[in-house]
Every structure is written in C-alpha cells, then in structure tokens.
Design brief:
2 copies of one chain form a homodimer.
Chain A: E1 2-6, H1 13-22, E2 26-31, H2 34-42, H3 53-64, E3 68-72, H4 78-88, E4 92-95, H5 102-105, H6 109-133, E5 138-144, E6 159-164, E7 167-172, H7 180-199, E8 202-208, E9 210-212, H8 238-248, E10 252-255, E11 261-266, H9 267-279, E12 287-292, E13 295-298, H10 299-312, E14 319-322, H11 339-343, H12 353-365
Parallel strand pairs in A: 1-2, 1-4, 2-3, 4-5, 5-8, 8-12, 9-11, 10-14
Antiparallel strand pairs in A: 6-7, 11-13
Helix pairs in contact in A: 1-9, 4-6, 6-7, 8-10, 8-12, 10-12
Chain lengths: ~375, ~375
C-alpha cells in the first residue's frame, strides 16, 4: 500500500513508518520537523538521542534494505501538501502532523492560537487535497481520548445513542476537552465528520489514550533508529516522567490528588491499532471513531506501579502530591469503551513489571542526558 | 453600561449599537469593515444603500444627540484588541465580529480556512483580552442555532441531560453543523465553554436562528441610518431572497424539497434578546446558551407565506424547486426549545403579513438596486 505518514519524524510517526516499511508498504514521510524546533524553543530534549531525519532514514535503508521517502514541508502550506498528495497518490494517509501537547497549548495566547490554527488548517488542507486528488484514500487521523473529558457516564466510541422525550437518535458523543490542544482535536473531529458526509471521504479517527514505551521491534534494531523519549513537563507523558523521577531518586510528582483516570497503551499497540485501521478501512463517506487504549489507570495507580518496580530495582521511590497546574477533576467516574479495535484483532501488551523495568533501565543508561530542570510543571491553566 | 460591540458596522451589529446608544449606554464599535470588503470581492451589494461607517455614526449623533465611538481594526490582531479592551474597559462585550455566511465558507479551501481561522482566532483573542484586562466583563457571543444541525430528538438549550447505562450527566448538546462556517461556531462554543471553566469568565452564547427584517425604530429615523439588506445567494437569508424574487416577478427558488426547517426571528427581537442577556448577565465562570429564535418554519412554509402576501399585493408569485446546492436533510424532525429568553421577558414579534408587506414594499422602493445575477446559488457543497 502507498502510505503517506504526516508527522512521520515524531515519537509515534517514526516507529509507525519503520513498522509499515518493514511490512513492505511504500512509505512517504512528510514532516516540518517543528517538533524538533519546539525543543529549541523550550530547551527540552529527548532522553534517547535522535539523529537527523535523513540520517535515520538512511540508516533504516542500510539495516532493512527498505527505502522510506521523505519530504520536508508544512501541511499548513496547501500548495505543498496538495502537490505531495497529487504526486504520491497515497491509498492511505496517516495523520500525526499536529501540535500534540496540552501544556504547550496553554503557555500563552500565542501558543493557544498557534496550536488551534496549525492543527485545524493542516487537517482542512488534507481534507481538501484528498477530495481533489485521491477521493478514495483512507484518512487515519490521530485524535485523543481526551476529547471526551471526564463525563459521569460511560464513554462510547465516537457516538452515543440518546433517548430523549420519547425519541431516539445516534449522536456525536458530547465532547468536554480540557486544554486548547484537546479542543483543537475536537474541532478537527467535527470538521472531518462533516467532510466525510459532504465529500464521501473515508476516515478513521483514532481517539487515542496516553502512549508509553520507548521501543519497538524496529527501533531496537539499532540505537540510531531510536524514537523520542520525552519526560519534560511539556511534552513528556506521565509514565515516562515517573520513570525518570524514580531513577533520579526524586519523588514521583502527582498533580493534585492523583485520581485523574485516563486510558493508556503501549507504543507497540498504537502501531498495531493503526495497522488494523489500514487493513479494515472505513467505507467511503464513513466517519468512524475507535477508542485506542488498552487499560485505564489513575495517576496514583501508575505511581504505585512505578514505586513497586523501583523497589525491586533497589530504588528508594517516594510519592509526592504537588499543586495541580491544570484545572481538571482529580476524582471522577471514568469508564471508556475500547471494544472496536479488540474485536478487529488487537492483542494488547498490558503494562507489566517487565516493561516498567525496561523503561527504567533505558533511563538508567541515559541518565547523563536528563535535565532535571525540565521536569516540574511551570505552565498553569489558570 | 460600557458596551463594546465587535462587528458593530454589520447587519445586526449596527442597529444593536443604535438601540443601546439610544438607551443611554456608552457604545464603542470595533469593526474591520471586512463585510463591506466581501461585497467588493463578490460583486454583491446591500439592497438598502449603506453609507460609510463614520458618516452613519455622525448622522446618529446629529439625530439622537448620542455619541457612538468607533475604532477601525481587526480582532484577529491581538495587540489591537487587547489595547482597545484595556483602554475602554467594557462591562459587556457583544461579539458579532465573525464571518457569518455558510456559502462563503464553502466557496473553496481558502474561504473555508479563512472562516475558521478568522472566527476562532478572533474569539480566542477576546477571551485572552478579557482574562487579562476585564475579568468581570460579560461576553455576549453570537452563535447559531445551526450548530445543532437537525437531530432526530428535541433540541435543548446548549446542554442535554443524558441517562446512559444507569448513570446520568448534563452534557454539552451534541453538535452536527452543516458548513465550515457553522463548524467555526461550534469550535468557538467549545473554546468559550473551556475558558469560562478555567478562567471564570462569564459568557452567554446566543444560538441564534435566521434573522429577517430590515428596520428597527432607530434605523427608521433616517434613511442614512439604514442597516444592510442582503438578498444575494451568499449573504442573503432566505426570507429576504423570497421577497426580492416575489417583487421581481421571479419564482421563489426553493433548494430541494423545502422541508428544511429552522428557527427564525425578527431583527427587533434579536436586539431585545441581546438586551435581555445584558441585563441578566451570566455569572462568573458560567457558560450559558440561549436558543435565540421565536418561530420555526420550513422553507416551503415561508415561500407560501410570501406567495400569499404577494397575491394580496397583486404580484404573480410562483414557487420553483431547484437543485439543492447544499448537502442537508430536506425533510426531518425539528423541534428546538426557546424558553429561556421568553422566561426572561422576550415579547416576540411573530412573522406577520404586515411585516412581509413592509419588506416587499422596501424591495419595491429599491428595486433599481437589485442585481438579478447574484440571486441564484452558485456555491456547491459537493
């Protein structure tokens, strides 16, 4: 299959590209490298060193014998992405090409507006370019489970059957996102749903949970194929951050009570989910949502898991509650459905002591790269 | 009250400003005049001639003895609007300052992206400027009833009580907008709801129906105080268009079956609703939605009303069904609630033969200004 990977240089985009290349697909990566640029802006850095894009692609070719193509450019530039899609004529477009950090979007007005304008414009451009050049292409869009927020009822997959005053309808699930970033994904979802209806586009919107893990079969083949490992307060996700804190001998910092519950998944499962979406595509005109996560944890549960494994590794791991920089419920009902991907064959890698041990060992090996000053939260919602 | 009217030069913004000025409020209009610029772009024109902004303000001062201030500028320019809000320190901000045409947003990619980026950025800027300068100011935002689409259940005012698998919650009403313009309003609503929650902003989101009518008590005082009357296929609304077609002896053109049902209201009621919102403001941190319309009509019903009144005026009015340029249901359930504004004291001007007669007489008087070529729809959704 000819697959265009937008944002194919990023944390998930890169290992997804390697995996699909390994499987024999023709891969074209498009990336503006703005994620690397954010590191320059913020003074942050991946714990695992990542090499320049062209070099890692070259390395992949040496190791696997497979070629991945790369076009540098920004999907908010329509003339660029329109030409790329016209020339490459993808059968599937996997869209990771967005600003993906909630704290980044909350830095200030500039970052909020940037996040929304960037994400919305990029996605609208993709929809218009599909309509014009490849109306049969399948759009696989990375959304977020955070679009739903934390309602007091079960979270369904994209749609909710409502009975109201004796009448029934299947309606888009109400969204209550909690940052300007999460809002941008909700805006995208509404835009894509509309485009599917009016232009017969086929789209799968993956409402993804928090991804953890540092390695896949492909990235493990060579240190130069590593993907990013972010642990800072802006782009780092909670489990990575806990592992770094544990290895450094710092207390695991929980924002507030720690009852905040979310869906999580292993990066290898993310890639498996994307492959499932590719292989059983949405129909033309169909907008479908898969909730993409394998397990639910509260932040406190995760901290305790890291603490337990830390103790086995002879680390003295403490847990500390700090003031929550975000405005969010710290104790709430949370039950999200995730049966669609499972029923299509997903075999989850559940979070195990083995994985946590391997994560902490990766941190240990790279401990000299850690910048302690980038860990504690400095961006306030209020 | 110090009231900032964003988009105060427009169809509704102008008569709202006059009315509130007449009532003794201190009015500052901010407008980029982009609506007048769209006319240059599209070759369209208000049927009632409108004079330059500074002149109509001057005229108002002559006639009423009241002063309205005006600042030319674009709210997507944060440094501009931030200074305006800081200097004027409004107690209330009425936000009409958005691109408001569905067909305009569907012209092509440029117009879709412009509409969404313009509307979202402007609204985000207002929210940040309120947060920084006037955290107690009441934001009165013009949304649209079109945010809801046409669900098969009753439309409530902003929120829906859902019982699901034995649990209950009050959730944002699911939105199914039908153009990139309507989508931009949904995006705004989500952004404003979030800002109210995290920054304690007070906001009223008026989900307004289709407005008709050409005159208010204030605009009638002098022909130079007239507000716009749009009848073209891009900015004209259906009732205005029918009146123009009737007077010209053209058939009333119904898009498709004509079962499309929407909420409608008289422009005088729009202004009354805004005054109600001003006088009973949202509380700090509250995001509330009022459905702002007084009656529901299908397009076919409206056509028949115009036909009936046309016959009384000795006009030979025919009805013609043409291919629908939009993708929308042409026959559907529609029942929207509008009790909040009524319970706060709104006394509706229902659509009457008298009003239709007066509209058609306005058209007659200005018949020489009509450009027939701008009436039939040329912008296709598909």
């Amino acid at each position: 299959m000819r697959i265009l990977v937008l944002g194919g240089d990023g944390y998930i985009g890169w290992p997804t590209s390697l995996y699909l290349s390994q499987k024999g697909h023709t891969i074209l990566i498009v990336d503006s490298l703005v994620r690397r640029y954010f590191d320059l802006e913020l003074g942050t850095k991946s714990l695992l060193p990542i090499i320049p894009t062209k070099k890692r692609i070259h390395r992949w070719q040496k190791i696997s014998g497979k070629k991945i193509d790369f076009r540098f450019g920004d999907i908010t530039d329509y003339s660029f992405i329109n030409h790329v899609i016209k020339d490459f004529s993808p059968e599937c477009i996997i869209h990771f090409g967005e600003q993906r950090s909630a704290p980044y979007s909350m830095i200030d007005r500039n970052h909020a507006v940037y996040t929304q304008v960037n994400n919305i414009t990029g996605t609208l451009n993709i929809l218009y370019a599909i309509r014009k050049n490849t109306p049969d292409a399948h759009l696989v869009k990375l959304g977020t489970l955070g679009e739903y927020g934390t309602p007091n009822i079960d979270i369904e997959e994209g749609f909710l059957e409502v009975t109201h005053k004796g009448r029934k309808d299947l309606l888009p699930y109400p969204k209550q996102p909690n940052s300007f970033y999460h809002l941008s994904k909700v805006h995208d979802s509404h835009n894509i749903m509309f485009a599917c209806k009016v232009w017969d586009i086929a789209a799968t919107d993956l409402h993804q949970g928090v991804v953890y893990g540092a390695e896949t079969e492909e990235t493990k083949l060579d240190p130069l194929l590593a993907t990013r490992f972010d642990y800072d307060h802006i782009f780092g996700t909670v489990l990575n951050r806990f592992c770094v804190e544990a290895v450094l001998g710092m207390p695991l910092t929980i924002y507030g009570e720690g009852g905040q519950t979310r869906g999580f998944l292993d990066i290898r499962d993310t890639i498996a989910c994307i492959e499932i979406a590719l292989n059983t595509p949405a129909k033309k005109g169909e907008y479908r949502v898969f909730n993409q996560f394998t397990e639910q944890f509260s932040v406190l549960q995760l901290a305790k898991l890291v603490q337990k494994v830390g103790h086995k590794l002879n680390l003295d791991v403490k847990i500390q509650h700090i003031i929550n920089p975000r405005i969010e419920k710290e104790k709430h009902y949370y039950k999200a459905k995730n049966t669609k991907l499972i029923s299509l064959g997903l075999k989850p890698h559940y979070l195990s002591d083995t994985l946590l041990t391997s994560l902490m060992n990766i941190v240990k090996t790279n401990i000299k790269h850690v910048d302690k000053n980038t860990i504690s939260p400095k961006i306030l919602w209020k």
